[in-house]
Amino acid sequence: MSNSKFKSLEKIGECYYIIKFEVPEDxxxxxxxxxxFSLEGKELGEDKNFRMFSIASTPEEGExxxxxxALAGKTSNFKKALFELKESESIDISKPMGKFTLRDxxxxxVLYASGIGVTPIRSVLHSLTSDCTQAxxxxxxxxxxxxxxxxxxxxxxxxxxxxxxxxxxxDETMNKLREYGKKYLDVAYYYTxxxxxxxxxxxxxxxxxxxxxxxxxxxVFIGY
Length: 224
Description:
There is one protein chain. The protein has two domains: 2-93, Elongation Factor Tu (Ef-tu), domain 3, CATH 2.40.30; 109-220, Nucleotide-binding domain of ferredoxin-NADP reductase (FNR) module (Rossmann fold, 3-Layer(aba) Sandwich). It is built from five helices and eleven strands. The chain has helices at residues 77-83, 118-126, 149-158, 170-184, 196-208, and strands at residues 2-12, 16-21, 34-38, 50-54, 64-69, 90-93, 109-114, 136-141, 162-167, 189-194, 216-220. The protein has a six-stranded antiparallel sheet, with no helix packed on it. Strands 9-8-7-10-11 form a five-stranded parallel sheet, with helices on both faces. The two termini are 21 Å apart.
């Protein structure tokens, strides 16, 4: 575990929070990965003292950024303690994990973010460089706030190979994903980040199109 000092907290809308930490010495990660964040020495009652969070930033940005959702009246003791951290306090972070990462610079990608599932996708998008030539289609579904919306829009304008689509309704979202699936079939990689229900539904839709399971790259958010 690495010890990381708290930097800042920003509330977006009614229930989204962006939290930033300093990068511990010799700590790095591949954009799209996640880590275990632990609050040691905090009195959390029956709640566990850790959560898994996808890292929304890239190493080049010089900070570890995560984002989470917390509904009023339903916020866990862990998240309450997380939101109350002061600049003098710190959190323990595990080694990075996960394979929700860029595979190459040529293969088309369909990136689907459901709600707070946008966090690893932000990191992957910010890791794209000018020599990444593949078509990148970003579908972001939310019924309230689109966090990182302005950043992703700016990136899509700066990189002509990146397309950004926002959706609200389930049918609208699934129709768009099927459209890309029919276009690329096994030529593309299909990234999906969201709840287990969302990931399963998207996998099912792609599978019904005949797309091979080895083209799916998932980041499942459990109890966020």
